[in-house]
């Protein structure tokens, strides 16, 4: 099976609407999710949720851990619960095949070697400010649509996912600086963007202004 065939097979698992809802719920939830919570969130039975969650694990889209939710140990503490979280791997399919990731790496390498960080940040900030949805006060909707998976943490808006993960791993200073500038441009008067990494997620968070 080719890499493209494997990607098609993985994404084909998400063809089932219940499975898609379960994946979105687990992927967007900070921390780990148990079967009961996942079933309640998408409105299905626990047994049906367990079946689909395990199919997502088999496809490499979710990962599993076991932990006693009561926090107790020893006899009488009960069996550890099966918990799910989003897998770290990425899956992408383009028809016909494209190679935007390779182009992105080459462009990032050129910008970094040429010392054009400030120019890139200025362009990113301008692009963020030009987003009409963000300018209309719908920042959270824009972040969700762009794949950041935002969630509220008190007065802070944290970002569960980094849309530039592969490039950020290879060119952290360049890409994280660009990302911060982009979100600074998108943030309205209600929010302030700053470097504040979310474990396993984006390097930027947004704090609500008083």
From TrEMBL:
Cross-referenced Pfam families: HTH_20 (PF12840)
Superkingdom: Bacteria
CDD domains: HTH_ARSR
UniProt-listed InterPro entries: ArsR-like_HTH, WH-like_DNA-bd_sf, WH_DNA-bd_sf
Name under which the protein is recorded: Helix-turn-helix domain-containing protein
């Amino acid at each position: 099976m080719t890499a493209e065939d494997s990607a098609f097979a993985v994404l084909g698992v998400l063809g089932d609407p219940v499975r898609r809802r379960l994946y979105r719920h687990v992927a967007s939830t900070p921390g780990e999710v148990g079967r009961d919570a996942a079933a309640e969130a998408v409105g299905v039975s626990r047994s049906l949720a367990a079946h689909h969650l395990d199919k997502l694990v088999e496809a490499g889209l979710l990962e599993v851990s076991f932990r006693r939710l009561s926090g107790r140990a020893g006899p009488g503490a009960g069996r550890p619960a099966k918990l799910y979280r989003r897998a770290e791997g990425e899956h992408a399919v383009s028809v016909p095949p494209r190679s935007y990731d390779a182009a992105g790496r080459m462009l990032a390498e050129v910008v970094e070697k040429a010392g054009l960080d400030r120019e890139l940040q200025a362009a990113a900030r301008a692009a963020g400010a030009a987003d009409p949805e963000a300018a209309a006060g719908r920042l959270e909707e824009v972040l969700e649509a762009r794949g950041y998976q935002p969630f509220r943490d008190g007065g802070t808006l944290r970002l569960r996912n980094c849309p530039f993960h592969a490039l950020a791993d290879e060119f952290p200073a360049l890409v994280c600086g660009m990302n911060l500038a982009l979100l600074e441009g998108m943030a309205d008067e209600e929010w302030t963007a700053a470097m504040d990494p979310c474990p396993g997620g984006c390097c930027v968070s947004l704090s609500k202004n008083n």
